[in-house]
Amino acid sequence: MASIRKDTSGKLPVWRVRVRIGNYPTHSATFATKAEADAYALQTEKNLRTMPKGSAVSKAKDKVLTLGEAIGRYRLEVLPIKRRATIISQAQQLTWWCHRLGRVALGEVTPFMVAEAKGELTARGCKGSTVNRYLSSLSHVYTVAIKEWFLDVNNPVARVRRMSEPSGRTRYLSDDERQRLLAECKASANPILYPVVLLALSSGMRRNEILTLRWKDIDLNHEVIKLGDSKNHEPRVIPLTGHVLDTLKNLALTAPGRESYVFKSPNAERPYNIISAWLAALRRARIEDFCFHSLRHTVGSYLAMQGCTQLDIAKVLGHKKVATTQRYTHLSTSHIRGILDNLTSAL
User: Fold this and answer.
1) In what order do the strands lie in the sheet with 14-19?
2) Hey, which of 29, 57, 122, 304 has its CA 20 to 30 A from 346?
3) Cα angle vertex 120, ends 117, 121, to 5°?
4) Hey, what domains does the chain have and what are their CATH numbers?
5) Mind listing the pLDDT tens digit for each residue in 235-286?
6) Is it the case that residue 51 has pLDDT exceeding 60?
7) What is the rounded (10 degree) CA torsion for 175, 178, 183, 187?
């Protein structure tokens, strides 16, 4: 079908036409008048619908694309623009799908085949969340094939039930644990462990957001950190206050330049590796069942216990989905108490 829209971004308005039918390549053109655009759209649609067999365009349409070939194109065109961690995980998942169903024609992969593959992953001991990531990777290949490559196929993954996943992890530090951990981080031989952990507990930032922070991202005059591209691809502004602000101001006195990492490795222009120092600090502080990302959960839990709303917590942590923030609602006793007070006063 054809889509026609008026473009007024230039000095003179123009009419832009896009025509796509089935698997034929998209045809587009620009005209000065709506009448010319309509005529082009009608004629192009007629030409495509009456395309004789054996023509170059018809051969492109009739070519049978296998799932493996579609995944290969996806890895060349789509995967490289994703985040590095996503590239690594999805590349592994897509390689598995290639081995499992790569020789099957893209349009002939059935929900039953996908369900069988899902069962194989489960039999290998993969967790529900892992199986769902494999299904999502394959599903996105079909989404791109349908919406961007204009292939006339159905997404078989859409009809396969996803695995149940456990609720989100909400492990957070008690007041005593927090004090012990900060003390051990300050005593660490790694000079940046304490300011990194302090910033995490003061802002709710993710580890990668902190370690890849550059001085150009910090505005000490306005006392904020400006994250241009967070995990969910949304910009975020994080206020700086108290001890963490003073700590960053002291670090800025010896900063080599705005393009440099705030927590730069002493031997190269890359972020500092804090893994061994972090694990050692946890052992010395006698803190178990805790990872660096739990510092972020600690911030969310503290905010909930102070009566902050879900919207407030979501803004601080940069959540896009309400379900992600709901894991902290059971801690918001003061807010719930206020709701119950209003209810009982009316009885």
Assistant:
1) 2-7, 14-19, 27-31
2) 304
3) 95
4) 2-61 (no CATH), 67-159 (1.10.150), 175-294 (1.10.443.10)
5) 788 888 889 999 999 988 888 788 888 888 877 677 888 899 999 999 999 9
6) no
7) 170
